[in-house]
Design goal:
The complex is a heterodimer of chains A (288) and B (149).
Chain A: H1 2-14, E1 19-25, E2 32-37, E3 46-47, E4 71-75, H2 77-88, E5 97-102, H3 122-125, E6 137-139, H4 151-160, H5 164-175, H6 183-187, H7 212-225, H8 235-239, H9 246-261
Parallel strand pairs in A: 1-4, 4-5, 5-6
Antiparallel strand pairs in A: 1-2, 1-3
Chain B: E1 11-16, H1 20-29, E2 38-43, H2 51-59, E3 64-69, H3 80-98, E4 105-109, H4 115-132, H5 136-144
Helix pairs in contact in B: 1-4
The chains are: A alpha/beta (288), B alpha/beta (149).
Chain lengths: 288, 149
């Protein structure tokens, strides 16, 4: 923790960064909240622990920070994936971000819980970037990662084995609860469009009322717009007040991208984005 | 005795201006017959087809959707169909996961000279969807919805 604070002070002192986006203590000991460090004194409030769940990369594309000089950011491996994806998509200038990489040994799945093998987030179970793959400075040491059964994957396999009608009924029951608050969109580091297709009114492609019909189109399109881009931070599902298992959709699309194109989002800084390019040899056995 | 009403599916077809639409034209001028279930919507290129079009078609009561354009390397805009194909690979598997399986969503390459192939594709798609039956799941949520338009 001290190492992080010292580094933050050093960066602010030297003028390397204007602000640092990090975490500070929350309302209880097992919570943290996003925190913007603007002054040297503020740097003493920075923390990093098992409760640093938020993906702060979301702030990088917000207009308060975008193109406002170099931004420091405290990032776990999964957050760095989002930053890499944003750089790939030309949303963040590589030189405008200073990544304080944190060696990560897992975070809780939900704020307010104690950290244990039971409550570790699903994304941590298969993490390949515990040491961030892109960083300007690296802080902390790796500890053992607790392991548990991947219930999310089991749910996915169960769903995949269903008939189309059963799948539809499953999703209808889930999407029915959607209240169209768009928290999934706001929490997502990769949903940065200034004007979302859901907000367009002429023509209105996605109905704005929170009815099952419009909920289907919204959730399908949201998942599709993140296909091959979602880095699996799972912030959308955590933000969802209706507890819709959005991670199943995102994970499915990630698996399709892996299977069909051997592509993983947020890893290669110089590789082109998945749907921004094509290959003449792409699979077409489904086309008559 | 009144004859039982046969199910006639509604199929929305998004076709590209340069190949499939012209192919369908050829089928017409060649006096070939094909099912009238298909409602064609002409777009400049398959690359123009946003997945929301497909969702909208189902929303508005389509029982199936056909998407057709130029063969690879034949695209009027050179790369439109390559970009489109990559999106379809992802999108059809997403729809499959949601519960709209590949018997309702069809893709084909039909060139301007393939009037006969267009007829074959339309016949095959219509038969598949006839067999599958109406898209009752979407119709059900449509019924619940009071439209103020």
């Amino acid at each position: 923790m001290n190492e992080l604070r010292e580094k933050a002070k050093e960066l602010l002192n030297a003028g390397t960064v204007k602000v640092i986006i990090g975490y500070s203590e929350g309302t209880t000991p097992n919570r943290t909240k996003p925190f913007i460090v603007r002054t040297i004194e503020d740097a003493d409030k920075l923390v990093f622990n098992k409760f640093c769940v938020n993906n702060l990369a979301m702030y990088l594309t917000r207009k308060e920070y975008k193109n406002k000089g170099t931004i420091g950011i405290v990032a776990k491996g999964c957050d760095v994936k989002a930053i890499v994806q944003l750089i790939q998509e030309n949303q963040v200038n590589k030189d405008d971000v200073y990544i304080i990489g944190m060696n990560c040994s897992g975070v809780v799945s939900e704020l307010g819980e104690e950290f244990s093998a039971e409550t570790i987030a699903t994304k941590c179970l298969h993490c390949s970037v515990r040491t961030p793959h892109l960083h300007h400075t690296l802080i902390g040491a790796l500890e053992d990662l607790p392991q548990r059964e991947d219930k999310n994957f089991a749910a996915m396999q169960k769903l995949e084995a269903m008939t189309p009608e059963e799948k539809w009924d499953f999703w209808e029951a889930e999407f029915k609860r959607c209240v169209k608050c768009y928290a999934c969109r706001q929490a997502c580091p990769l949903c940065y469009c200034e004007r979302c297709i859901a907000d367009k009114t002429i023509p209105r492609w996605i109905e704005s009322s929170a009815h099952t019909r419009g909920n289907f189109s919204w959730n399908i399109i949201r998942a599709f717009h993140l296909a091959g881009r979602c880095i699996g931070c799972n912030e959308c599902e955590r933000a969802c007040p209706a507890e819709i298992p959005l991670s199943l959709l995102n994970r499915k699309m990630g698996m399709v991208a892996k299977k069909e194109f051997d592509y993983t989002a947020g890893i290669g800084l110089d590789t082109p984005t998945l749907v921004g390019t094509y290959n003449v040899k792409d699979n077409e056995d489904f086309i008559k | 005795m009144e004859e039982e009403k046969k199910f006639e599916p509604k199929i929305a077809a998004f076709v590209c201006n340069w190949c499939t639409y012209t192919g369908a034209d050829l089928a017409g001028t060649s006096r070939l017959k094909y099912a009238t279930n298909i409602k064609m919507i002409r777009v400049p290129c398959t690359g123009r087809i946003d997945p929301v079009f497909i969702i909208k078609a189902f929303e508005k009561g389509a029982d199936g959707v056909l998407i057709s354009g130029c063969h690879p390397n034949d695209c009027h805009y050179n790369t439109g169909n390559f970009h489109a194909r990559r999106r379809w690979i992802l999108f059809r598997q997403l729809l499959d996961f949601i519960g709209i399986d590949s018997s309702r969503l069809h893709f084909s390459w039909v060139s301007a000279s393939e009037g006969k192939k267009f007829v074959d594709v339309v016949t095959e798609v219509t038969n598949t969807i006839k067999e599958k039956g109406p898209f009752e799941k979407y119709a059900k949520i449509n019924e619940e919805f009071v439209i103020h338009e």
